[in-house]
Write a structure and sequence with these properties.
about 120 residues; mainly beta; 7-stranded mixed sheet; 4-stranded antiparallel sheet; about 55% strand
């Protein structure tokens, strides 16, 4: 089993940047696809982008392409989400996710990002 701990959220002005981190502990060996999701108030959780062990990034949400960057530091078992050019509509709870080859999903606890106009 994998445990995920997300951090780095906060309050930022429109146009600002934040970097979220997600540290994985437990059974971190093996093949996982790691992703970032977010859930805005009153909306469903949506997938943003993911990265695999070969460093290939896939975007699920076109609106963040060019603004958000995902990266993985395997030596630290840490996933990052660099968010630039933040807009008020990016306000949400951000979750990291790891999915193993059997399809089991592991979730971090979420970190709140609030973007003021």
């Amino acid at each position: 089993e994998v445990q995920l701990q997300a951090s780095g959220g906060g309050l930022v002005k429109s146009g600002g940047s934040l970097r979220l981190s997600c540290v994985a502990t437990g059974r971190t060996t093996g093949t996982y696809t790691v992703s970032w999701f977010r859930q805005a108030p009153g909306k469903e959780r949506e997938g943003l982008l993911c990265i695999n062990r070969e460093d290939v990034t896939t975007y699920y949400e076109d609106s963040v392409k060019g603004w958000f960057t995902i990266s993985l530091d395997n030596s630290k078992n840490t996933l990052y989400l660099q968010m630039n050019g933040l807009k008020p509509e990016d306000t949400a709870v951000y979750y990291c996710n790891a999915r193993d080859t059997t399809g089991i999903n592991y979730w971090g606890q979420g970190t709140q990002v609030t973007v003021s106009s």
